[in-house]
Amino acid sequence: MTLLEAVDVTVRFGGVTAVGAASLAAAAGQVTGLIGPNGAGKTTLFNVITGLQRPTRGTIRLAGEDITGRATHERARRGIARTFQRLEAFGSLTVRENVLVAAEIHRRHALRRSRRQQAPARVTDRLIERVGLDAYADRPADTVPTGIARLLELARALALDPRLLLLDEPSSGLSVAETESFGDLLRELAGEGRAVLIVEHDMDLIMRVCDRVNVLNFGAVIASGTPAEVRADAGVQAAYLGTAA
User: Fold this and answer.
1) Which residue numbers delimit the ABC transporter domain (predicted)?
2) Do 196 and 32 meet the contact criterion of CB atoms below 8 Å apart?
């Protein structure tokens, strides 16, 4: 089932078009990639989907509902969660407290009653274990390595029990082994019925975990398809991936 639909999204800043009539979709149960050169408009498109940026034109739908005019917190209540390219953890709180804050807020405002019945502390402990943060749980967030902070942001997003999970450069700072485990976790999360949309420069990760990949260049979607189709696309090779030697 298609959960997210971004249709003809355009964002202009004065005379600059950051995103131009871009359309993409993300299906429940799948990992969808969004790749492209720096400055292609990927984070801007994420900001439109989550309500941080109002589009000049275009429509965002979640499970068929037009949410283009909805505020960010209203989208979160409907099941959208995200991480950021620039780390946004609460530095003075511990890793556990960061996740607990999200779990407590979500319990208070959840639209689904069954979600409110889960104790925030229990949700927090389960997520910390699931993403592999046990050894860092009681450390202040601003003292942990970058890769661990990325996992913290993932756990905090998952505390919202999202239907749609948007991840912006989530593997930055992870080791090769950690990235391998992280990719497996993404497949698990999608397998539970979530739609996962990921912006990432690690092409090995993208090609391994994604069901579909969209390529953004100068604000426009220039290709969309399976990883194999995108890798073989001549336009994508010229704009981003390069050609094999």
Assistant:
1) 4-243
2) yes
